Request: fold
Amino acid sequence: MPRPTTKEQLLTAMQSEHTALEKILRPLTPEQMTHQSDVIHWAIKDILAHLFAWEQMCLGWYKVGLLGEVPILPAEGFNWRQIPALNKQIYENYHDQPLEEIMKQFQASYQQMLETVKGISEVDLFKSGRYAWTKENIMATYFISATSSHYNWAKKEIKKCLK
Reply:
């Protein structure tokens, strides 16, 4: 799927990639969801926790930016070169949570992302430099990375878990 360049394309990409991800998840048993893969060393539920953690970070950046402030990117104590360490911390934060809780958070976070993007104007999403904290980037870049691109990554990782 090409990178979205309009709000409509962004929403379509988010929804279609999330639907495809849910289609993979639907037939899985709790045992399949919680079994740690020998290939990627995560369980499928860990992948889902990873997704909603990044969605929540993105929503946080957006909310801080709306206040005219500059969010700490990607997270407190981390820079972009430290993504592996941040991802490890996310894994450690959520790994012991029950599957049912992870699934609730996964669904709730997606709905929150969807409603947030629906509420942002096309200009605010796609005008370069619209927010001081995004610099020359467009806001949509952050939402694409935290949603449709990330869901596509997750589908591939889940397929590895199921081999």
User: Anything to note?
Assistant: Residues 41-161 form a domain with the Four Helix Bundle (Hemerythrin (Met), subunit A) fold (CATH 1.20.120.450).
